[in-house]
Amino acid sequence: MKLGKILCGALAAVMTLSMAGCGGEKKTTLVMATNAEFPPYEYREGDQIVGIDAEIAQAIADDLGLELVIEDMAFDSLIAAVQSGKADMVLAGMTVREDRLENVNFSDPYTLTAQVVIVKDGSPIASPADLTGKKVGVQLGTTGDMYAEDIENVTVERFNKGFEAVQSLLQDKVDAVIIDREPAKVFVSENEGLIILDEEYTIEEYAIAIAKENTELLEQVNASLAKLKDSGKIGSIINKYISAD
Questions:
Q1: DSSP single-letter state for residue 37
Q2: Please, where are the H alpha helices in the chain?
Q3: What are phi and psi for residue 180, nearest 5 degrees?
Q4: Contact of 68 with 9, CB cutoff 8 Å
Q5: pLDDT tens track, the chain, 245 positions
Q6: CB-count burial class (<10 Å; 0-12, 13-18, 19+) for 39
Q7: Which residues pair with 45 in a beta bridge?
Q8: What distance in Å separates the CA atoms of residue 154 and residue 134, rounded to the nearest whole number?
Q9: Could you tell me the CA-to-CA distances from 123 to 43, 116, 130, 193, 197 in Å, in that order?
Q10: Nearest 5°: phi and psi at 3?
Q11: Is the peptide bond before 128 cis (omega within 30 degrees of 0)?
Q12: 8 A C-beta contact, residue 202 and residue 122
């Protein structure tokens, strides 16, 4: 009986120590959620997800002493991923908007961009004002999707990927596509007969989305961004992918 009690006591002590060790485990990874269909911010090269956001996330992870893990998912699932704890942060060419701020916090912005309109060369659409009554393609859940809703008498066609909206334009299934400027430049360069309208639809800021309750990570990310901006690292990453024009 005494031996049994000793063994039980030892087992309980080991379990207690084990639980304490698990509870005190130090975080070693930084999980970034993205939609890798948005060049040059995030896209695939073979099995790797690369691009501006991937490199900025890696620089932040390095600064924090963490291993970066990138999870690829649908764009309209990204905010839910950080809310649920599936990911720590979102870098996905995501624009700061009031409706998104109801669900997540945003870091300090790391770049400016614009929404633009892609049309076929020779299209009668010469400016965003000409989109009234037209059929417009957008990527589901993006700001282009949200802005398109405000166009008078518009028909909005939503796609899971930006290039699917562009393909629909090439097939004359939509009259125009509203999308972020840098992906638009890539899509136009890869598809003959498309142009970007000179007039921008709107100017926006990209930032990193983080769960509302994760204020510690928000502070750490903002501190890392400040250092990376001051050192010129973010500028060099962006310039690597985006030409000066």
A1: -
A2: 2-23, 52-64, 78-84, 98-101, 143-148, 162-170, 181-190, 215-230, 233-241
A3: -65, 150
A4: no
A5: 434 443 444 444 444 333 334 445 788 999 999 999 999 999 999 999 999 999 999 999 999 999 999 999 999 999 999 999 999 999 999 999 999 999 999 999 999 989 999 999 999 999 999 999 999 999 998 989 999 999 999 999 999 999 999 999 999 999 999 999 999 999 999 999 999 999 999 999 999 999 999 999 999 999 999 999 999 999 999 999 997 55
A6: buried
A7: 48
A8: 5
A9: 29, 15, 10, 10, 10
A10: -60, -40
A11: no
A12: no
Find tokens 């490199």 and name the residue.
Answer: 55
What one-character DSSP code corresponds to residue 96? Answer: P
- CB within 8 A of 137, min separation 6: which ones? 157, 158, 159, 165, 166, 168, 169, 173, 174, 176, 177, 178
pLDDT score of 244? 57
Instruction: Look up tokens 């090439």; give the residue.
Output: 170
Quickly list H helices, 103-161.
Answer: 143-148
Helix 215-230 vs helix 52-64: crossing angle, to nearest 10: 110
Give which of 31, 30, 50, 52 is closest to 41, Cα–Cα.
52
201 closest CA partner among 134, 100, 75, 113 = 113
Name the residue with tokens 């000409």: 130
Q: Are strands 209-211 and 89-90 parallel, antiparallel or unpaired?
A: antiparallel
